Amino acid sequence: MPAISLYFQVHQPYRVKHYDFTSIGSDHLYFDEVMNKAILDQMCDNCYLPANEVLLEAIEKNHGDFKLAFSISGSALEQLEAHRPDVLESFLELNATGCVEWIGETYYHSLASQYSRSEFARQVEMHAELVAELFGKRPTVFRNTELLFSNELVNEVVKMGFQGILVPSTEKLLKQRSPNHVYKTPLSNKLLCIPKNSSLTAEWSRHFYHAEPDNVLTALKFTGMLDELKEEADCVNLFMDYGALSKQADGSNGLLSMLERFPKLALAHGHPFYTPSELLTKVMPTGKYDVPYPITWSYPDYNLGYLTSNDIQQEAINRLYELEIAILEKGNADLLADWGRLQASDHFFYMTHKFEEKSESNIYSPYKTAYEAYNYFLNVLTDLELRVRRD
Amino acid sequence: MQVKHNFEGKRILMLGWEFPPVHAGGLGIACYGLAKATRNFIDVTLVLPKSDPRMQLDGVQIFGLNELPESLTITDPELNRLNGGMPELEYYQLSASACDSVRKGYQSQSGLGRTSFKALFSDQEVYGPQLLAKVSAYAEALVEAFGEGDFDLIHAHDWMTYLAGVRLKKKTGKPLLIHVHALETDRAGRDARNTMYYIERFGMQMCDRIIAVSEYTRKNIVELYNVLPEKIEAIHNGIDPQQVFRAEHHVPEKIVAFVGRLTHQKGPYHLLETAEKVIRRFPNVRFVVAGTGEKMKEIIDWTAFKGLSRHFLFTGFVSREKVEQLLAVADVYFMPSVSEPFGLSALEAAQFNVPCVISKQSGVAEMLQHALQADYWDTDTFADHIVKLLADENYHREVLAAMQGDLQHISWDDAATRVIKEYRKFLLNE
């Protein structure tokens, strides 16, 4: 019976405030503290706290057989520390059970691996250090922002001391093989790939986003799906944003109540829970996963289309990374932190045209349009450039 | 205070559409300036689609259709008649295709009921998607409210009020003077032959006299609307003195300011083409583009695609205060309009001691004769002008000084005197 590997991403960016062009040169506070705190509070109260509680109870009830993994971005950890120490405390409680693994990532939830290898390494190290300090152990498994992955990344990640990496799976690149295994890479024997099972993860998000009666995911239904998998399946890797466990607008929370029963039921059906690093030792890799171009977990194209495909995204990102050398030379901690925070992939997601093309609005964006997001971001970037030149 | 007795208590019925501080567009500012300057000579009643307690001008009666009693709302059949076409257009033998074009404009806005008349004028937006319906309702309501003819001359500002002016003239026999602040051929291009164009042409044909806001506009009326030049008087608007100031700007680059809606009329492509040429020769420059409009996305995309974003700033919609803050730090004001009947913003820039580079296809080019000028398509010359102003401080100072001289000749009193002279022709048969 296949094992289950459950992983949740927790991330909160520093959203840029409505930074007017007349502020350039005089106002160096770039982020909307009020909005960022409000969104953090909402996520903490509707998701992180209640979900942590359910998970803690499941761990305790199942006497250590229920395990899972988290990654929390550095910018989320910073904001929790500053505004919601109670929530950080509840993550620490989970950590104390020994049943939670902390996955490494870029500190600022950035796309640095695409734009600057040195900045990528700096941020991964920053994050690993923070995780070690808070949770007592350096991560040994890595996940990149949006699960962004390609062969090129393999040896970078090996150099940083990771043994495994969470990766997206596409049918084309898996060449009709199942994602329910652990794979090697063509470039190193020191790193194993753990591919996300997109279709079974989608059952969870489908429930979250369209919880119509037909889609209600019960523990029984989902365990049934796992039971039906072919005999040779080793592991089912369910990777998703922790926000998927949020309360619905109507106050209900089907996924959480599903999660209250699921661990016990799955264990009873013979599905063990393994954390990603356990998979590396308990599951034999079955072949190589060759990923010659960058892929992400973004549905349906599995590429960076939402983040880096249009002119304004590219211009904003290029100008941002052009600052690297000058900022590092300055060695000013404030500059470095602002620069890092501006690297969060979220900023570029707010600039996508993909929603407009479908006549939808980007409900995840705090700005009215992609161009509004871009203009504020560029005003801030202009100020940052001035500081780099002057300070 | 001038004496009014010359006109023996005669009254001008001024038909307007915008008025500050609620609508601070060019038309509103011009109406305000004119009403303020002429009120010393003659009684003025100004009718607007919507009045607001904030609109105050001593000596001028301001009346909004929203103040009409409920009993004066227009009933369904009336509006349906309007929706079906306007008999007076046919009566005055507009061509069949012209009538057709006008009718289509109305038909696209059918289904107005009795109560919707009030709704039409209840929101703050005096333009908006139901503009043509508002225009016909405005005309209808004015005939109801002012059909008694308790005034001596109708002075109608821009096409939204022309139909009302014509109907009032027919009903009361009072002379109609129309005042052209902008033409549909400015907004939509010289080939525009749409509903607004035909309404404008209808007004020009039916009126007794036309005041154009510039010689440039006068010429366009003659050429594009087939009106005899003798019927038109070009009178430049004045400008109110400003509290001007200079401020330190924080960006190290020299600033070229563009203020205006980002529409084809304002020449956004010529702005970009010029900017690219300037940046190549004078890289220490930043173009601050203040305003928004249908071309904004395209323009931002272009600067990003070219990798020139660091030479631009896009402000989006800007308040009056922000425009002033921008002018206070600008080194050059740039107005490459394809067709600009007047161009108040350039005068304001000049007041703020910013030398201007402006298109010859503008009214303001006649007033700021020492502003640097080029045809709107001549981006090489625009770029030469801008680079020279940015690079040569002495030249910058000289141009500015000469433009200050131009400004000395511009005043609302002059404009009012000339408008009054037009009034006299009708009121005193001079």
Explain what this protein looks like in three dimensions.
The complex is a heterodimer of chains A (391) and B (430). By secondary structure, chain A is of the alpha/beta class. Chain A folds into two domains: 280 residues, Alpha-Beta Barrel (7-stranded beta/alpha barrel), CATH 3.20.110; 86 residues. Helix content of chain A is 49%, strand content 9%. Chain A contains 18 helices and eight strands. In chain A, the strands form two sheets. Chain A has a four-stranded parallel sheet, with helices on both faces. A four-stranded mixed sheet of chain A has the order 4-5-7-6, covered by helices on one side. In chain A, helix 9 packs across helix 10. The longest helix of chain A is centred in the first third of the chain and has 29 residues. Chain A is globular, with a radius of gyration of 21 Å. Chain A starts with a strand and ends with a helix. Chain B has two domains: 250 residues, Glycogen Phosphorylase B (Rossmann fold, 3-Layer(aba) Sandwich), CATH 3.40.50.2000; 155 residues, Glycogen Phosphorylase B (Rossmann fold, 3-Layer(aba) Sandwich), CATH 3.40.50. Chain B is built from 18 helices and 13 strands. In chain B, the strands form two sheets. In chain B, strands 3-2-1-4-5-6-7 form a seven-stranded parallel sheet, with helices on both faces. The longest helix of chain B is centred in the first third of the chain and has 16 residues.
